[in-house]
């Protein structure tokens, strides 16, 4: 075989090898989302027996057909009866009205919850925000300002006396972890949250993909709270797995 033939053969073999490698390696766009449904060893459901009303009306929270309905009135919370430290949490939520506002608090400071004798929110905890996309327009209409300090796709931030170092991308003031992707569905559609809270670090997956989080939370133990904040919302399939 002459030199030209050898080069041609080697080039053809290289192309064939590259083609085989490409065929064997899956495309990143075809990989399945890592949706965790809260089943398996250690997971358990959280229902009516696991929560208690803090500062809402008697009919603000209704447990029905395996889910939770919240009227949004008044502003307040329902907390877990137990404190949690290291855990994984899954829940599904659906806003029933445009511009709906709610949230899930983790590591909520018990002493701050105990102070809530009137409508209001606890001054201590890490909030995993649950905000409808319509809130942006509603905020601009009511204030005349752009709502650039929040997003509607799963912000994470410390409230009150709690502390957290949020992961980037950050809000303009640096206090919130903004989601890296916009994955939340709109009003009337179910959304899936997977929250992992371990050793002071909290991370959020929205509809199967990780989007936001933070580390060095202080304190890193406390109640789990669901928030009533002016608009009707439903929750379902709330499950938790406690970790060492």
Automatic annotation (TrEMBL):
Signal sequence residues: 1-22
Provenance organism: Blastopirellula retiformator
Name assigned to this protein: 3-keto-alpha-glucoside-1,2-lyase/3-keto-2-hydroxy-glucal hydratase domain-containing protein
Residue stretches making up the 3-keto-alpha-glucoside-1,2-lyase/3-keto-2-hydroxy-glucal hydratase domain: 37-241
Keyword annotations of the record: Signal
Pfam families the record matches: 3keto-disac_hyd (PF06439)
Signal found in the keyword field: yes
A single MF term (Gene Ontology): hydrolase activity
